[in-house]
Amino acid sequence: MVNPYELDLDRNPANHQPLTPLTLFERAARTFPDQPAIIHGRIRRSYAEFYERSVKLASALARNGIGKGDTVTVMLSNTPPMLEAHHAVPMTQGVLHSLNTRLDAAIIAFQLDHAESKVVIVDREFSAVMREALAQAHVEPLVIDFDDSEYPSDAPYPKGERIGRIDYEEFLASGDPEFRWKMPDDEWDAISLNYTSGTTGNPKGVVYHHRGAALMCYSNTVHASMPRHPVYLWTLPMFHCNGWCFPWTLSVQAGTHVCLRWVRAKAMYDAIADHGVTQMCGAPIVMSTLINATEEERREFDQTVVFNTAAAPPPESVLSGMAEQGFQVTHLYGLTETYGPSVVNEWKADWSNLEPAEQAKQKARQGVRYASLEGLTVMDPVSMKETPRDGETIGEVMFRGNIVMKGYLKNPNATQEAFAGGWFHSGDLGVMHPDGYIQLKDRSKDIIISGGENISSIEVEDALYKHPAVAACGVVAKEDERWGETPIAFVELKPGKEATAEDLIAHCKSLLASFKCPKEILFEEIPKTSTGKIQKFRLRDMVKKEE
């Protein structure tokens, strides 16, 4: 029997178009042409100007051979060209590849070759390392220099030499403002390429599609509590998971992008106070920078600023410090492979009546899936059966849905392994609570096995963060003849605060079982990524050098 709902009701251009963030951008420019879109130093650009410049950049790229499936690489700070590239490159049906600005030349060269980059746009701050990378790479892209007119004269990093064939503004001026940009042929088409950190070998290229990017725009708007015309401060690097897709997201509510080249306490407080910032994102290190700012660096502001944070769960002291300063912290979780955060700690009204310590315990949980994520669970990775919802049984956190990557570029084996059993395997270990909220316990490689007992490095770090003198800490395993492994902690103290190793170990013993406590504490600067995440692999290397 023919289903009548499938008879003569086919898809056609009138009723089916591919999802893409580009249409959200065009709508914002058409509907709110005079609305402030970008603030960068003295530069102010409306949505009409933002849109026109992006179209001209797309036109110039197309005239230089960029089309479907071609990679455009950018090495830029949080500046207007980075926002323009996020829209212009997809307008050509090309793929945006945004480089981590802290990478060394060898890794950059690897990425340029692996991505087969046709064009490179580089900020002069990074021209020296890019010159070295291009000398090592096999590809020979068109190189475009960006010379930031708002680059401060007293900058800690002086501009490098021009290394390209043309200046960014000259290149953009060659474009046609009436250029008819292209929608994706299919919403499954690639929109961007982001590389993982590559701590255990060459990095893997994570491919995003237009559908996932568009759906993230809607989810970000909801889960970041974005009002009409939000003002967003760029403390999160836009190269990190495409800035968690916020370069595209702000168009939904025609928000204002406030650019920030370097994350510094005074610059953040000035932007918040001067521009009425309502939203920002960042790792816990950004929160610590705000909390530990001097009186001279701080500014008063009337609005509550929603601060979205991922990575490690915020310690209780940080959460209370942020609240005192006027920030509302939302805890998120995700990976590069899930377009950035795709799990949110949905706060429930009755939790606000709990004692601060209990509130912090609730807020430290990663939470539930985004509205645009179809599946989130904790499983035994071997049997692929869900673990009990008891808050204790550890399994691997797994994802399924439209905001999971297409796969790893040119790496079918890694892609198949990541998607085994029809779920994306995160590599993160966690538990599922009875209310359906997940909580991370560790990365699989970061679990410390001491005397046959599993020790979560996150649990030990949480205990250390409860000490008032601890600013940052990282816990890893150290080989031990008797126990196999024991925890060792690296600690940075807050300015003006003091604590000995004995003080911190005694503090941990008041909160944890003795076998979980660090056997050794080293007071050293902790290596972090450009997004503020602690680099555990480097801590493990430091331990090996001491052994």
TrEMBL record:
Segments forming domain AMP-dependent synthetase/ligase: 25-409
Chemical reaction(s) catalysed: 3-(methylsulfanyl)propanoate + ATP + CoA = 3-(methylsulfanyl)propanoyl-CoA + AMP + diphosphate
BP GO annotations: fatty acid metabolic process
Highest taxon in the source lineage: Bacteria
Assigned keywords, A-Z: Fatty acid metabolism, Ligase, Lipid metabolism
Sequence ranges assigned to domain AMP-binding enzyme C-terminal in this UniProt record: 459-533
Keyword Ligase: yes
EC numbers for this chain: 6.2.1.44
Enzyme class at the top of the EC tree: ligase
Xref: InterPro entries: AMP-bd_C, AMP-bd_C_sf, AMP-binding_CS, AMP-dep_synth/lig_dom, ANL_N_sf
Keyword Disulfide bond among UniProt keywords: no
UniProt-recorded Gene Ontology molecular function terms: ligase activity
Coiled coil feature spans: none
Homology family: Belongs to the ATP-dependent AMP-binding enzyme family.
Protein name: 3-methylmercaptopropionyl-CoA ligase
Organism whose genome encodes this protein: Nitratireductor basaltis
